[in-house]
Design a protein that fits this description.
By secondary structure, the chain is α+β, with helices and mostly antiparallel strands. Helix content is about 25%, strand content about 20%. The chain has helices spanning about 10-20, 125-135, 185, 250-260, 270-275, 305-315, 320-325, 355-365, 395-405, 420-430, 450, 465-475, 480-495, and strands at about 40-45, 70, 80, 95, 105-110, 150-155, 160-165, 205-210, 215-220, 240-245, 265, 280-295, 370, 375, 380, 385, 410-415, 435-440, 500-515, 515, 535. A hairpin with a 5-residue loop joins strand 13 (about 370) and strand 14 (about 375). Belongs to the bacterial solute-binding protein 5 family.
């Protein structure tokens, strides 16, 4: 959904690798977990909605309130949540049709789970979630996976049989992982306008107490939460989590230093050293399934639809300089499938930093330097707007390096930075000339959402029949060999036609108070808040 090079059969191998990569864990050292207290978290982005299927951002807050049937753990292996097991072919949870072109997945659900209003959670909620998301009237950030389901059977309150039109290796990272809707509260309601979007009802460890747009969200303990610790004590331990919305990175760091906030999942790289020196703070470096990219708008300036121009951009960008400007934390890459995945293709067409080659390509394409050094063709200056999310210090620093690199070959880039809903709308609708940002994926990424014709995150309007075909092949099989082969070919083709320039991999830097126990980072787009029930504050 919000973001499968690795099939269900090989996730455990990848998980072991990720365990090695995310080795810095912050665990409690107290003899026993202590109950109570409020954790204050600083988020670097505004929140558009608390409906996890509608938001254009990561669902940090939402992950504390709503739960899915399964979720990825710290090793990017799927574990059961509202389901009792993760379905596989081996355990009988996944069954293929006789012709091998369709499949059904049976979820056995936990008993005695209640919504935070006291109503029972049942298989009817699972079926309703699918029906609500696929409803054409519902405007969702992504309906990924809903169109693949033909029907859902609910033979009893604790069994949901999901019948798929195709073989869907990405089933665990789409429809029922990010959250389940409560049928009893939402049936017959308009999901676009219902109060659920500001105060979602969930089965998670917390429930929303207050949401002030642009300011904060307070979630408080859900007294009906189903999970207990090993001693039989009902979770969660914390009384509250306060999420403060602080888009300005300098303010975020100042509040960390003063103790006004005790945690942020996104420390600007430039601030790591000084925060690491604070005696009451721990810096957690978390390798995430994410990469930075520069996208071209194929619906925008004509020059950007010229492959020679896109290649010139690629040769002009100094990725090493970007990495250095960001403290060396991110590493330069040549493909969109990050190196942790076995399907990452190291033999794609590469574009090493070479400004002379960039200039030669632009010369050959007919773009000649004008009086001010900016290239011109047929009266059109090579002057474009570059979009990043305002207030994200790492992205704004990288943006300046890119602007400088392009200016050196005669291309002018002007910052057009936006935040909140304006940024989201520009990203999804292609309201930019070029766009620099990052994508973070699930443990089983679905690259069609980014690069297939009409993909939900394909705001740039890129379309390529061969790319479409290769992604269809990769995302319609449970055979890891077939899947890997298709993804290798997909990357090779993508880097030839170059709709996007992969820039660096990402390392998220999390600052967290030493008083927080049982915190473990998560490398996926389910966010670091996917399992907050066991977190506690030491007295």
């Amino acid at each position: 959904m919000k973001f499968s090079p690795i099939s269900q059969h090989s996730v455990s191998r990848k998980g072991r690798l990720l365990l090695a990569l995310t080795s810095i864990l912050l665990c409690g050292t107290a003899l026993a977990q202590e109950r109570g207290g409020t954790l204050t978290v600083g988020l670097s982005y505004d929140i558009d909605t608390l409906n996890v299927y509608s938001t254009g951002y990561l669902g940090d807050v939402q992950a504390t309130v709503v739960e899915g049937l399964v979720a990825p753990d710290r090793n990017a292996n799927y574990v059961p949540v509202l389901a009792t097991t993760v379905p596989t072919i081996k355990n009988g949870g996944i069954k293929l049709s006789a012709d091998g072109k369709q499949m059904s997945i049976t979820y056995k659900l936990r008993r005695n789970v209640k919504w935070s209003d006291g109503a029972p959670f049942t298989s009817a909620d699972v079926k309703f979630t699918w029906e609500a998301i696929k409803n054409p009237k519902f405007i969702a950030e992504s309906k990924d996976g809903s169109e693949d389901v033909s029907s859902i059977d609910t033979p009893d309150p604790y069994t949901a049989v999901v019948n798929y039109k195709r073989v869907a290796p990405d089933f665990a990272s789409t429809l029922f992982t990010f959250g389940i809707f409560p049928k009893h509260a939402l049936e017959g309601k308009d999901l676009n306008t219902d109060v659920y979007n500001e105060k979602p009802l969930g089965t998670g460890p917390f429930k929303v107490k207050e949401f002030r747009r642009g300011q904060y969200v307070i979630v408080e303990r859900n007294p009906l939460y189903w999970r207990k610790d090993s001693k039989g004590i009902q979770l969660p331990y914390l009384d509250q989590i306060v999420f403060k919305i602080i888009p300005d990175s300098n303010t975020l760091v100042t509040q960390l230093k003063s103790g006004e906030i005790q945690m942020t999942p996104s420390v600007p790289y430039a601030q790591v050293t000084q925060l690491d020196a604070l005696p009451n703070m721990t810096i957690v470096k978390n390798n995430v399934l994410s990469w930075q990219h520069l996208d071209f708008n194929f619906k925008g300036p004509e020059a950007l639809r010229d492959l020679n121009v896109r290649q010139a951009f690629a040769y002009a960008i100094n990725k090493s300089a970007i990495s250095k400007a960001l403290g060396g934390f991110p590493k330069a890459i040549d493909t969109v499938v990050v190196p942790v995945f076995s399907a990452s293709n190291r033999n794609v067409t590469k574009y090493p930093y070479n400004p002379a080659k960039a200039k030669a390509l632009l010369d050959a394409a007919g773009y000649k330097p004008g009086p001010d050094g900016i290239r011109v063709k047929n009266g059109q200056r090579m002057s474009y707007k570059i979009l990043v999310q305002a207030g994200r210090a790492n992205d704004e620093i990288a943006q300046q390096v890119i602007i400088s690199s392009l200016k050196a070959v005669g291309i002018e880039l002007q910052p057009d930075n936006k935040t909140g809903v304006a940024f989201r709308e520009a990203r999804y609708k292609g309201g930019y000339d070029v766009f620099y940002s990052g994508w973070i994926t699930s443990a089983d990424p679905v690259y069609s959402v980014f690069f297939k014709t009409g993909g939900v995150n394909n705001g740039q309007g890129f379309s390529n029949p061969r790319i479409d075909s290769l992604l269809d092949r990769a995302e319609n099989t449970l055979d890891p060999t077939v899947q890997r082969s298709a993804l290798m070919d997909f990357q090779a083709e993508l880097m030839k036609v170059l709709p996007t320039i992969p820039i660096t991999t990402n390392l998220s830097v999390i600052a967290v108070t030493n008083k927080l126990g049982n915190f473990v980072p998560n490398p996926t787009n389910m966010t670091n808040f996917v399992n907050t029930s066991s977190w506690y504050l030491k007295k």
